[in-house]
Amino acid sequence: MLLDIDTAAVNVDLGPERLNLTNAGTYLTEANSIRSALTAPRNVLVSVGMRTTDSGVILQLGTAVSYSYRISLSASVVSVFEAGFLRTSVTMPGLVAGFRKCLISWSQRVEGGNVVSELACYNFATLAWAFATATHTAATPVATDTLTVAAATSGAAAYTGGLSAFWAVHIGRRFRSTTECAGDFIADPAAPSITGLRRSPMLTGASTDLGIAGEGSFAGPSFLMAAAATRQADSRATGPFVNVLPTTPVTELVLSSPLRFYRPTPDAVAGYQLCIRYLFHGYLSPTVNAARARIHVRAYDTLGGATISPVRFRGFSIANLPVGVPNQPKLTWSRGAIVSVTTSSTTGVWVDLGVINLVRESSNLSYFALGFKIDSAVGEGVSFQTGWMLNAITVDPLTLDMSDGGNGDTEGG
Amino acid sequence: MAIKIRDLRNTSTASPPIETLLGGQEGRKERVLSVHAQADSLLGNDRNVVARVGLHAAASFQVPSTNSTSVTQTYPLRTVSRLTSRTPPFAVLPGHFLVLSALVVPSGMTQKFAAPNWVPDAAFGRIDVTVNWTGPASTTTNHSAPVLPNSGETWGAETTAAGASWAGLRRVEIPLLFPAAVTTNSSDLRTWSEGVSAEVQVSYRGGVRAVDVVVQQVPFKYARNVGVDSVFTSTLVTNGAGAIVPAYPVDYPIEERSATDPTFGSKLLANVTDRQHHALGPVLAHWTAFTESTTPVTATAVPSVTTASTTFVDMLRTSVTTWASTRPGWSLSSGGHAQQFKSSNALRELRDRNACVPVRCWALCSRTGTGTATFRFQSENYSIGELNFSSTTHAWRSCTGHLRAGVSPEDASVLEIFGKAPAASTLSLSSILIEYRDL
Q1: Which domains are seen in chain A, by residue range?
Q2: Which of A106, B97, B284, B411 is the most interior residue, by most CB within 10 Å?
Q3: Per-residue b/e over B26-41, b at no fewer than 16 CB within 10 Å?
Q4: Mutating which of A111, A202, A395, A396 best tests the B interface, going by the most B Cβ atoms within 10 A?
């Protein structure tokens, strides 16, 4: 069920059933609301104006003496109940004397023999979220209960903000992630710029759920669906290559210390060096050929000022790094673009090192190293002393079309 | 027992030939076989990192290069292992086992006590790995302990010449950590192919100087009794050697071979691809509080970060109280390729602009005193997994949730961990792990 006053009158159901609620003046109602009597997984979402002084029942499925589930407000606290039990509650952030548009999303999912309730509340004026979760026993809603919005059954315990404060109501029969809730009812995020392969889950089913080879079914479509599903699942288990948050990062200065930790970058560009503090390795998935690398760095004047020399970074993917193996093949490498940090920071910033082609050994072994250089400006070491520290480094592998040969290409370098 | 095996080593998917299956095409057996073969190769696609520990931006190694005779202990003991990294019992991918690879420089000195001083023992280093495997029917533990190269310098010191750490870099590996006799016994392999979890402990013994130690899940082999096992992730259109058969066994695509042997049929494919869409996903993040530069050589357990705050603070930066995408955190971006249709609806509702992934969030934690402590695993203002516990026992605990992940590895995401202690209590966190979990 979906009510949305931006599109239609408040009692008009915009959901697939198109079954309008009865407008009782101060509240909406639907008797014997079997479509709302949903066991978990379930989602109940309400968008409503609220004030600090408001209270009452916001939505209920119940009778005059009991209820299957209920959302209520009291003293700025949003509470969700089932069959007489408080499941969880949160304080709606940022309420004031006047109406502010707010969102309540109560989603349930089954976990083992229990049910997990996630309650997320959002204030459109302050952009603030509040969140609570609870694990509890399952409840079975009563199919003959009455659904009411802005009051309990027959208008009892009416919401003091009134029916006119309601923006939207949604009741659905699946768990709805807060990510979906935010995307649908708050703001549609901008699509990211993706150059690599993108995978999306498909609607699949077990053979017992599908009419494979049944009457009116052809064998071909099931094979086609299986092939498409395999394609969309081919990167499901590929995780990050490097995903490290150093707990006690050192501050790097112009003068490298200790010298034994450093070497020139494999491209031998003057001033750039690698340090074993920022060397990582492991086996790569055979299906990836590039990676998006990001670092969170804090560059600052260690003397306390605000001026720093530019600090340059670039990522290196390396294969056949000399590690004492006899007859080791020649070292090969690939590098990303140079990215510079030029402003001092007290907390640090994310620096996108871009997409870097991955090189690997025949066993899929590969190394990732961070190249860097403090590009000393006039006054470095005298009026200011540039330092930087690594707060985080993430390298997420992906598949990229390198040679117009399709996304199945895996050659790096 | 009709056990079939798929050898997953050196295999991976290519682009499935969907075009040859589109409408108007003849349903030829080789096209159908290629679909089976792709589904059967999918388990060979990943090399998933489950734990990583090492120098990692620290100023120096835990094991020094100074005079090894001292009044107080400055070097580790030769006979005691020091835990540096742990994982919870995470779900192992079907047909996968573990590999450990370590980049090290020569190990340093150890000490022993000879009154009145601590004196040199021997330059020695070893990495101890313990894996506790839990399968559907049994548990087992295995240990490995690769010995590392040792320093020949005075005091077991690091070589001081410029670039010497790079020149002295060595890699050691345990190629396969596995339970039972899975490498030689097909029945054991079948037992340990599905529904397996592994708990890993990495310890240093002696003067280990590790630049980077990584534990990964790697595909090995998958086995199934095709007449009995009802949960499976591979089509097993294989020959006796575990390789894909060269030809489809009948002239025309079939529904199944028999009610107890669906091999080669369309029903088998539906079940495999459905399970692959639900069961497969990566370990997305792991962290240990061990640091080379600050963890003392006398510590035998993984250290903790702590807070006594009764309101939420970032466990790694306790001055931070709220989530922001500009702050340091772990990436969940690879989870964009492990979305679920039922909880993310990437195409319909999120329209490929955003994504979330179902996860189990683990914390190795405890709190002092009484009351309920809380961790929040947060990757957006609206995306939170919440873990509540009340125990003074330092142990792995977990919660489930749906965390915003980004639509692909190229879409940035930031996971932070916030903690809140009850009044008059201190909350401790030693390690975390975030794994995909079908919820």
Answers
A1: 2-185 (2.60.120), 242-398 (2.60.120)
A2: B284
A3: eeebebbbbbbbbbbb
A4: A396
A232-271 residue pLDDT tens: 999 999 999 999 999 999 999 999 999 999 999 999 999 9
Confidence category of residue B25, pLDDT binned at 50, 70, 90 = low
Residue the block writes with tokens 């001292």: B70
Q: In the predicted model, is pLDDT for residue B346 greater than 80?
A: no
The C-alpha of B252 sits at a distance from chain A's nearest C-alpha, in angstroms, of 10
Confidence grade of residue A198 (pLDDT, cut at 50, 70, 90): confident
Res A122 pLDDT > 50: yes
3-state per-residue secondary structure call for chain A: CEEECCCCCCCCCCCCCCCCCEECCCCEEECCCCCCCCCCCEEEEEEEEECCCCCEEEEEEECCCCEEEEEEEECCEEEEEECCEEEEEEECCCCCCCCEEEEEEEEEEEECCEEEEEEEEEECCCCEEEEEEEEEECCCCCCCCEEEECCCHHHCCCCCCCHHHEEEEEEECCCCCHHHHHHHHCCCCCCCCCCCCCCCCCCCCCHHHCCCCCCCCCHHHHHHHHHHHHHHHCCCCCCCCEEECCCCCCCECCCCCCHHHEEECCCCCCCCEEEHHHEEEEECCCCCCEEEEEEEEEEEECCCCCCCCCEEEEEEEEECCCCCCCCCCCCEEEECCCEEECCCCCCCEEEEEEEEECCCCCCCEEEEEEEEEECCCCCECCCECEEEEEEEEEEEEECCCCCCCCCCCCCCC
Q: Can you give the pTM of this predicted structure?
A: 0.95
Structural domains for chain B: 3-44+234-279 (no CATH), 48-221 (2.60.120), 304-436 (no CATH)
User: What pLDDT score was predicted for residue B65?
Assistant: 95
Q: What is the pLDDT of residue B86?
A: 98
Cβ contact B402–A222 (<8 Å) = no
Which pLDDT belongs to residue B265? 87
Q: Decide if A376 contacts A239 (C-beta within 8 A).
A: no
Side chain identity at residue B362, one-letter code: W
- 8 Å CB contact between B300 and A363: no
* Residue A410 confidence (pLDDT): 40
- What is the predicted pLDDT for the residue at B111? 97
Which residues 354-383 in chain B show a CB within 8 A of chain A?
354-356, 376, 380-383
Pairwise CB contact (< 8 Å): B334 & A195: no
Q: What is the pLDDT of residues B166-182, one digit of tens each?
A: 999 999 999 999 999 99
| C-beta atoms of B407 and A192 within 8 A | yes
Whether the pLDDT of residue A96 is over 70: the answer is: yes
Size of interface A-B (CB pairs under 8 A): 401
